[in-house]
Amino acid sequence: ECSLAGIVRAFEASEESGLKLIVGSEFELEDGLRFVALVETLAGYTQLCELITQARRAATKGHYLLARADIEARFRNTPPGLFALWLPGREPEAGQGAWLRDVFGARAFLAVELHRECDDAARLGQLLALADELELQALAAGDVHMDVRRQRALQDTMTAIRHGQPLADCGEHLFRNGERHLRTRRALGNIYPHGLLQASVALARRCTFHMRQIQYRYPAELVPEGHTPASHLRALTEAGMRKRWPDGTPPRIATQIEKELALIASKQYEAFFLTVEDIVRFACSQGILCQGRGSAANSAVCYALGITAVNPEESRLLMARFISEERDEPPDIDVDFEHERREEVLQYVYAKYGRDRAALAATVIRYRGKSAVRDVAKAFGLPDDQIALLSGCFGWGNGATPMEQRVREAGFDPDNTLVSRILAVTTALNGHPRHLSQHVGGFVISDASLCTVVPVENAAMDDRTIIQWDKDDLETMKLLKVDCLALGMLTCIRKAVELVEKHRGRVLDIAEIPNDDPPTYAMIQAADTVGVFQIESRAQMSMLPRLKPKCFYDLVVEVAIVRPGPIQGGMVHPYLQRRMGREEVTYPSPEMKDILGPTLGVPLFQEQVMELVMHAADYSDGEADQLRRSMAAWKSGGDMEPHRLRVRERMTAKGYAADFIEQIFEQIKGFGSYGFPQSHAASFAKLVLISCWLKRHEPAAFFCGLLNAQPMGFYTPSQIVQDARRTRGGRSGVEFLPVDVMHSDWDNTLVGGTHWREGETGSAQPAIRLGLRHVSGISEAIGDAIRDARHRSPFIDAADLCRRANLDEKARSVLAEAGALQGLVGNRNNARWIVAGVERQRPLFPGSPEETRIELPAPTTGEDVLSDYRALGLTLGAHPLSLLRARLRARRLLGSRELQERRHGSHVHAVGLVTNRQRPASAHGTMFLTLEDEHGAVNVVVWEHVAVRRRKALLGARLLAVRGRWEQVDGVAHLIAQDMQDLSDLLGSLRTTSRDFH
After folding, report:
1. Using one digit for the tens of pLDDT, what is the confidence trace for 146-189?
2. Is residue 923 within 8 Å of 938, Cβ to Cβ?
3. What count of other Cβ atoms lies within 10 Å of the Cβ of residue 452?
4. Which of 826, 829, 823, 799 shows the shortest CA–CA distance to 812?
5. Is the peptide bond before 92 cis (omega within 30 degrees of 0)?
6. What is the rounded average pLDDT of the residues 246-251?
7. Is residue 559 classed as helix, strand or coil in its secondary structure?
8. What is the DSSP string of 862-916?
9. CA-to-CA distance for 8 and 23, rounded, in angstroms?
């Protein structure tokens, strides 16, 4: 209704089936008149897109607004292109049909919808008489809402969800029967008079519009006078070459750039590259860090233009991964911007091209597990508490446990009629579209009004508009998309660099950070990577001591190797064995050595697979790219068999062994489970290197920037602070100072430290003063008010603070709970007592007697820790487990430091706070946990059968005891769980959080 969101999928299905697609949409005006607009010609398609845009832009997200005046203004005396089918209500109003006939003339029709209801005969007679009276052509219409009759329960439920009402209250919103499904011609012939069916067929034949007629052109106004798009792109590229290579561009790169420019010109993509360059140039002019990634990093032109940061001299470029002569679709350029400042970039694009020519792509949000059962259960009338219990059965950690068992454990009877119906409809609803949301940053820009190509509507966020097509639709329709994405690590890096300059006097150019800094690689090899980019997960950290990165290319490999593609393709173990010298490095042919040499004969990147088939199986650039697409589609049902046969035939003809050919193809299929392109891994490796260098050499600024960029990344602020305070290897621990209204700003700040001097090592790092942003319940506005009032003059007492910063009772209480008033009034107990008696207004008589100050005893260490976690989510005091250590030892439960002293293969009992849970899709049901204590962290591996048996403890425990086997191999240590016990009761009222990922 008032949408073309599904039209491209319908177009693809029509092309595949050979059925003719008729484009249209249904509308309901403010006064209740309903009609369907069907497209006859390209002009009519444009009219429809503009009408939908007008209606959607006039209302909030998810709604539309149309009045008769809007229809009259747009269609009266307008060149033909649309047909209007009036949909009379149960009690037809002749005036509606007369008005529609007046506006659309002979292009207006009366739609007769019959669905085997008891009054069909009377209804038919009534509508035919009305059509004669109004001189409207009557035709048959189906009002189809489902493919088959048995979907009625799902259809009714979706109707209840749409109206936000329980099924029992939907009444007339529900259809009277299940006949609104696709019916055979014979069935239709038994229901409708032949003349009505003939009229429908005749109208369908008049609808000649085809989706391929849509005309889209990219804007070209960035081309200055005297230039063509090609000449301007060349000029910018050559200027970039002089900047990138001041001593002259290497011949190989110059040749590559000429080849790329020729290809870009032949595909007429110059304007697209100019747009991306313009956006990046704007960001740089505003001091916003950005970096291109993905397949664009295979382009030497993108590097010269400053879009990407990967030097093509340091990598093996494969242009076919980015763009090729045979690839009839636009290139994909992804650019990451600081996540806190990306909105500035988006608004620049809107301002540059206007909201009529630029909008974000959509993304289709589909029902999955919890979202499906919540909406279904609500439609069936379950109360909120029961909905919460039932939806818990669909949590991401529950997959291995039978649904019946999960439902029983939640307190429901799976055999109960209501419960079983809810579960059945939930299963049917899974995968269906729920709503249209906005893409993470894909901009579509047009040379003319965008709504002549695709409808545009308001997004849920202010100052955002989106089109009704998603990225797959854009690819099908060959619309260019610029991805302006948000990346938290860029925000962290920019803030850290600014802090280094401000507090250490050290001006850093991140482009000049060395690729070969030994202390940085020593830190990486020791897996001291909490908080850095990409290699911070426990899976990555367990790989680092085995891979032992020593150079930049090793970081590229590290980024790519812990992915489902290499793992499921069986590539990780052979690569590590060869890297450690335990397996001979071999190649099936000299040409394979040229391709696979950097990865020791094992294909790890998409580009290697593409190059491999290009050389060994004589694939063209286009065929290699098609293989890449088939690899991506294979996991979701795509067909790889044609490629298998082609590769086998061609490689056999060139003398390759059959077992090697099959091995290669199994590895190719593995990439269907998310293999990384080398270009993407290299772009990410740049940020890995920069973040690791900052953590190693400027840890205070790095951790301060990281905390100020939250929320982002893999770890909570508590975990980040715990890691920052530890001294590991060559990195000294960072001192933290508590939140204090006498010193804290909203953000964390640096305090003290020594000025940096060239060539000096061991200079003292600043301390980090925690900011008010960590206090739960305090807004940035309140934090700024406290800072501004303090800067005007120091606070005298709590009353002075509360009055001058205009703090309400809640703000006073949470500041006291957080210990943020300690510098003003002493311990937490004093603070609680004092703020409870503060009046926000000054007393009427200045000379009023003052209360005698009461000094309350300080809280115990345990009480302070509880308050810290409650108010801040972290503590600078004792770790909770240090307070429980004696009780834990009495249970013979080991901590992380004691585990490190155990021999490989030992059977142990360990305990820790659960800080992370992961269940990667490639791990076949295995779950990975991180347990934290006062000395460090322990990685726990939970096989599927153990996870099923101890599911409640695994998913619900905050403090978890684990019995299992301790393993230490090649510098990597982890605990293989055999049993688990939830000890959360020992924490009392302490509330800790874990970050759980799929």
Report:
1. 999 999 999 999 999 999 999 999 998 999 999 999 999 999 99
2. no
3. 19
4. 799
5. no
6. 93
7. helix
8. HHHHHHHHHHTS--SS--HHHHHHHHHHHTT-B-HHHHTTSPTT-EEEEEEEEEE
9. 10
pLDDT reported for residue 675: 60
- For every residue of 87-105, DSSP letters joined together read ---SS--HHHHHHHHHHHG
- Measure the N-to-C terminal CA separation of the chain; round to a whole number of Å: 35
- CA count, 13 A, side-chain hemisphere, 206: 15
CA Rg value for the chain:
33
The encoded tokens of residue 449 equal 């009004």
- pLDDT of residue 636 exceeding 70: no
The reported pLDDT for the residue numbered 208 is 97
313-351 pLDDT, tens digit per residue, is 877 767 666 777 766 666 778 899 999 999 999 999 999
Nearest C-alpha neighbor of 497 from the set 486, 488, 489, 506: 506
* C-alpha angle 51-53-58 in degrees, rounded to nearest 5: 100
Percentage of the chain lying above the pLDDT 70 cut: 93
Is the pLDDT reported for residue 89 higher than 50? yes
For 107, the token pair is 């292009």
Other residues' Cβ atoms within 10 Å of the Cβ of residue 122 = 10
Which position has the token pair 């509360």? 802
Q: Could you give the residue ranges of the DSSP H alpha helices within 738-808?
A: 780-792, 798-804
Going by C-alpha positions, the residue among 232, 237, 235 that lies closest to residue 256 is 237
Residue 282 — pLDDT band, cuts 50, 70, 90?
A: very high
CB burial of 529-557 (b: ≥16 within 10 Å; e: otherwise) equals bbbbbbbbbbbbbbbbbbbbbeebbbbbb
Within 10 angstroms of residue 287's Cβ, the number of other Cβ atoms is 10
632: number of Cβ within 10 Å: 16
The C-alpha atoms of residue 774 and residue 870 are separated, in whole angstroms, by 11
What distance in Å separates the CA atoms of residue 915 and residue 953, rounded to the nearest whole number? 14
Per-residue tokens: 513: 């950070």
Please give the average per-residue pLDDT across 715-741, as a whole number: 91
- Which residues are within 8 A (CB) of 501 and not within 5 positions of it... i.e. 6 or more apart? 507, 508
| Sheet architecture: strand order including 34-39 | 24-28, 34-39, 82-86, 108-113, 137-141
- Taken in order of first residue, the domains within the chain and their CATH numbers are 7-144+182-212 (3.20.20.140), 215-338 (no CATH), 735-875 (no CATH), 880-997 (2.40.50.140)
Separation in Å, CA 587 to CA 19, 591, 664: 50, 9, 12
Q: Which residues pair with 34 in a beta bridge?
A: 28
- CA pair distance 156, 141, nearest whole angstrom: 21
Q: pLDDT-derived band of residue 838, with 50, 70 and 90 as boundaries?
A: confident
Q: List C-alpha distances in Å: 731 to 508, 524, 526, 764, 967.
A: 19, 11, 11, 12, 26
Side chain identity, residue 88:
P
Quick check: 672 pLDDT over 70?
A: no
Question: Using one digit for the tens of pLDDT, what is the confidence trace for 519-539?
Answer: 999 999 999 999 999 999 888
**What is d(CA 546, CA 556) in angstroms, rounded to the nearest whole number?**
15
Residue 695 to residue 765: CA distance in whole angstroms? 12
272: pLDDT strictly greater than 50:
yes
Cβ 197 vs Cβ 191: under 8 Å: no
Closest of 256, 332, 334, 329 to residue 626, by C-alpha: 329
CB of 592 within 8 A of CB of 660? no
For residue range 840-874, what is the model confidence (pLDDT) as tens digits? 445 544 544 455 566 788 888 999 999 999 999 99
CA angle 809, 811, 813 (to 5 degrees): 70
Q: How far apart are CA 156 and CA 179, in angstroms?
A: 12
* Residue 83 in this model has a pLDDT that exceeds 80: yes
d(Cα 702, Cα 929) in Å, to the nearest integer? 26
What six digits make up the tokens of 17?
């089936």
Least confident of 95-99, 559-563, 788-792, 965-969: 559-563
